[in-house]
Amino acid sequence: MSTGAHERVVLITGAGAGIGAALARRLAAPGVALMLHARGADEAAQARLAAVAAACAGQGATCATVCADLAEPGAARRVVETTLARFGALDQLVANAGHAQRQTLASLDAAALDASFAAMPAAFAALVRGAQAALAASACGRVVALSSFVAHRYRADAPFAATAAAKAALESLAKTAAAELAPHGVTVNCVAPGYTRKDQGPTPANAPAWARAAEETPLGHVAEPADIAELIAFLLSRAARHITGQVIHIDGGLTLG
Predict the structure, then answer these.
(1) Nearest to 28 by CA among 5, 45, 16, 10
(2) pTM of the model
(3) CATH, domain 8-249, list 1.10.150.130, 3.40.50.720, 3.40.250.10, 2.40.30.20
(4) What is the dihedral of CA 95, 101, 105, 109, to 10 degrees?
(5) Mean per-residue pLDDT for 86-99?
(6) Domain layout of the chain by residue ranges
(7) Which residues are CB-neighbours of 111 under 8 A, at least 6 positions away?
(8) Cα within 13 Å of Cα(18), Cβ side
(9) Closest by alpha carbon to 195, among 132, 119, 254?
(10) Tell me: the pLDDT tens digits for 168-220?
């Protein structure tokens, strides 16, 4: 466990919006240090990340931010190194950054597949490699990776060829990490959300698509980012210390059949 003023140091990638931002706000409290990452592709994205950090600081957390495109070689390691340099420890890693792209196998080209793998499974592997020593030294080492229902539900009318392949590879790497880090008491799990509302909510243009998503979900509604954040927060807690190597679906029954 972290020493000094921080009970734990948590790195959250993709923390500028959506699930990552909701998780940061859920974890923020005195004694918690948060390194919040976003790609920060433009000033608006950087401003969103800064606003999340400010909100978390207002709840008593110690916050820092870092911007990097995790698909770029060396970026994931730099994010981990920045965290260690700022806080002197890294107890918990949440690999949330990623994207979803509708694409058929017939239209899939090598560049799109490479981009998905670089941004998700390859970035996850690099993050874990960089953080491994720090996680092993922690008394509350945890890793949670965000997968997706698209790696478990395949339909010709809603294809996610590259994203599904990348998320499936991510889950496999997470299980390998779970096996390798278990002797150090570090747990590694995946969370696979279903349809989850975006921060901006439905717009007149996409409201019908969100209505269909709710209809396809057996519980009859899409998730809020905070719903997913609650599950991740549990997996980071001491109460989940005996759960590792799992893919946990939080999808309102979307993958039941």
Answers:
(1) 10
(2) 0.95
(3) 3.40.50.720
(4) -90
(5) 96
(6) 8-249
(7) none
(8) 18
(9) 254
(10) 999 999 999 999 999 999 999 999 999 999 887 677 778 888 899 999 999 99
Give first-to-last CA distance, the chain, whole Å. Answer: 41
Residue for token pair 């058929």: 104
pLDDT digits (tens, 9 = 90+) for 66-80: 999 999 999 999 999
DSSP string, 96-131: -------B-TTT--HHHHHHHHIIIIIHHHHHHHHH
- Give Cβ neighbours of residue 157 (< 8 Å, ≥ 6 apart): none
Would you say 94 and 144 are in contact if contact means Cβ atoms under 8 Å apart? yes
Burial 163-175 (b: 16+ CB within 10 A, else e): bbbbbbbbbebbb
Triad 65, 71, 72: Cα angle to 5°? 85
Q: Which backbone phi and psi does 121 adopt, to 5 degrees? A: -65, -40
User: Which amino acid appears at position 120 of this protein?
Assistant: M
Neighbours of 229 (CB within 10 A): 24
Taking CA atoms, 31 is separated from 5, 9, 63, 144, 198, in Å, by 6, 9, 11, 21, 29
Helix (H) or strand (E) holding 187: strand 187-193
Structure tokens at 77: 């390691």
* DSSP structure string for 171-236: HHHHHHHHHHHGGGT-EEEEEEE-SB--TT---TTTHHHHHHHHHHSTTSSPBPHHHHHHHHHHHH
d(Cα 192, Cα 213) in Å, to the nearest integer? 16
Between CA 238 and CA 46 the distance in angstroms is 32
